[in-house]
Design a protein that fits this description.
about 20% strand, Nucleotidyltransferase, domain 5, five-stranded mixed β-sheet, binds 5'-O-[(R)-(carboxyoxy)(hydroxy)phosphoryl]adenosine, single chain, about 350 residues, binds zinc ion, globular, alpha/beta, 2 domains
């Protein structure tokens, strides 16, 4: 029997500091996540300097917690993996430096991981992945349709031309007085209201697979400001439901187009916005009626947001492909997959 593969994984690209120990690419031995959301809430978004400082304060504590919870020591580790982009440069650097230091000090191979690959491979904890597969990647910074022709082979077939879906949620949330990040609360309100405002669904009828959310965001903000000016009280629940219906319609429509153009067996929904109940329900309903042979995989809620377990899952794929880095590894804030 082959020896188990143990990967120590790091994630610090935005406002979560996380370290995980992953066995054989799909078993979570530990996944410690320290979120800084409370420190950023009062600013209405992530403040890069504040984020870096928190990562520095947390990381050594979290490394120890992750090792202790997994019941392993440095001698058991086959590879150290780290998110090196995309993300905030100061935040990324903390994880990259910690990972490089441990790899160097204990003579362990280092694996560089793209944060987006991590979000997609969170699905490996749910089921065995089959290729080619399509991923709908929806987070605070990204909205992309990504084709994986083989393990670790990514290409973008559709992307947002302006705001990311999560970013639109957060900006609209601000107008409703909801603290950052607003996605979860808008999702909750949406389930209590009706789609009465008929907000625009940009580019949803074309075969093109790109997204645009800035028109929707502007329409929403204009509606709320206009009502304020004439002292009209709008239903927050209906506003949330209408906004969410527009976002979900576009995401679902584009994903169905992509599946028609690129037949696959599995659809992975990844990133923070994959936590959205409305999106999960709408996508699975459309698939059930139109493409019952496509399996939808959505990671459990805790693995949708930023975490190091997903980085370990992606690193397992990279290790099999012999993708390693040396001590010159640097943060790449604008790292992205190639466009098909
Ligand atoms: O992937 P993630 O944790 O961080 C990035 O890499 O961006 O995604 C965070 C984003 C935020 O914009 C947040 O508002 C959004 O995910 N989000 C949601 C939900 N939960 C989190 N958006 C819609 N519905 C949700 N339930
Ligand atoms: Zn993320």
């Amino acid at each position: 029997m082959e020896k188990d593969e143990i990967i120590l994984a790091f994630e610090s690209s935005c406002d979560e500091t996380s370290v995980a120990v992953i066995k054989n690419g799909d078993v979570i031995m530990s996944n410690i996540i320290a979120t800084q959301i409370n420190s950023h809430k009062r600013f209405g978004g992530v403040v890069p300097e504040v984020a870096s400082r928190h990562h520095v304060e947390e990381i050594t504590i979290i490394i120890n917690d992750a090792l202790t919870e997994a019941g392993i020591s440095y001698g058991d580790i086959d590879a150290v993996a780290v998110t090196y982009g995309p993300g905030l440069v100061g935040s990324l650097l903390i994880g990259v430096t910690a990972a490089k230091t441990i790899a160097y000090a204990h003579n362990i191979p280092l694996i560089p991981v793209n944060h987006m690959a991590g979000h997609i491979y969170a699905a490996a904890f749910v089921d065995k992945l089959q290729y080619p597969l399509l991923a709908l990647m929806v987070s605070g910074g990204h909205t992309e349709l990504v084709m994986l022709t083989a393990p670790g082979e990514f290409s973008i077939i559709g992307e947002t031309r302006d705001d990311a879906a999560g970013e639109a949620y957060d900006k609209v949330g601000r107008v409703l007085g909801i603290t950052y990040p607003a996605g979860k609360e808008i999702d909750r309100l949406a389930h209590l209201g009706q789609d009465t405002f008929d907000f625009p669904r940009a580019m949803s009828d074309s075969d093109n697979l790109d997204f645009s959310f800035s028109g929707l965001k502007s329409a929403f903000i204009n509606t709320v400001h206009h009502a304020d000016q004439i002292n009209e009280k709008l239903s927050r629940e209906d506003l949330a439901a209408s906004f969410q219906a527009a976002v979900v319609d576009v995401l679902v429509e584009k994903t169905m187009h992509a599946l028609q153009q690129h037949p696959v067996k599995q659809l992975v929904v990844a990133g923070g916005v994959a936590a959205n109940q409305g999106l999960r329900e709408a996508l699975s309903a459309r698939l059930a009626t139109e493409m019952p042979n496509v399996q939808m995989i959505v990671p459990p809620l805790r693995l949708c947001g930023d975490n190091a377990a997903m980085v370990g899952a992606a690193a397992h794929i990279m290790r099999a492909k012999n993708i390693f880095a040396d001590e010159t590894l640097n943060a790449q804030p604008n790292l992205n997959f190639a466009r098909a």
